[in-house]
User: What shape does this take?
Amino acid sequence: MGVRACWIFALAACTSPARPDRIFVSQAGSQTVIAIDAESGAIDARVEVGMLPHNLVLSPDHRTLYAAVVGSQAVAEIDVATAQLRRTMLTAPVPAVRDDGSAIQAHVDRDAFGHTTCYDCHRPDGAQPRYAGARPFGLLVAPDGKRLYVSHLRSSDIAVLDLASGEIEQTVHMAPAAAATEAVALARQGDEIWVALRPPQPSTLPGALRRLDAATLAPIVDVAAGSDPTALLALPDRVLVSNFESDSVTEHRGGAAIRHQVAPGPLGLAALPSGGVLALDYYSSAVSVLDLEAGTSSTVALEHAGVPYANPTHAAVSSDGHSAWIVSSGTDGHLIQLDLASMQIVRDVAIDGLSFGVALVPGAP
Assistant: This one.
């Protein structure tokens, strides 16, 4: 390549436009996951995945997005670059018999055992009930990206999916911790996987956190949790849990449990560039900022021009660390951009009501 050609190539590389962050949101009310351009705020893709998509998690290389399809007993795998559905994967076998031992003839007639999602049959205009299965909810990708761990509300199971084949490699049942039976959230810290267990809702009875050996999934110890432990956040030296009905976030560090009082209804948790943590206060239409070192918290109402944004669920922090994208999951859905320096809302993107999860794919310079 000549000098002139090299110079032109270098200039083109330097002046090529940056690729903005891309944001994915699960929309439980419309069976879809949408992709949003963070720069323009435009919705550039809508992916139909199944009944009640909720939690979202990215693969370690940010090329794949996984969505827990709670009402279809499946995980949807989405290609991040194209925002297209690659495949669905069952998180539990399709049952052949009911609880009373009688055969489910419809499953035989429709060859349901050969499908990879209950959404193929159970949908608003299809077989009833429209919501089927064991209710997969929490997601955790292995550090090497080869396995996906899925917790289930109804069966209390943790399923391990082999992502090469899309098949269930292992299923481990979580024994009850007193009244806590529903396996809600998953997080990994070092050689341990933490599982949040809660009683069937609604309930104000305490939940528990079960620490598992990451290699064998054998239980190590149970740790007490508040009422309805809903979300887990693993940091390098601690694990935090939001206690939805106890209006608190508990920090577990070095064997100690430190309780942070927040506004009513903490749901999602997000790590901030400052070292703090953002808690999404669903009941309060607010966010709480936790300073873990100082042991303090402050609450900011989510409103603009006197209008509140209802029921925040989850947040994702932008790649530049300047803002948080927050799902407001009321009947009128909103994805709001919160400037973290001023704690002011700077943008509102209209999304479907009853949205829930959010994942951000960092852009490129």
Observations:
- Residues 3-15 form the longest helix (13 residues).
- The CA atoms of residues 322 and 341 lie 7 Å apart.
- The chain has three domains: 49-173, 175-260, 262-365.
- Residues 1-16 have pLDDT under 50 and may be disordered.
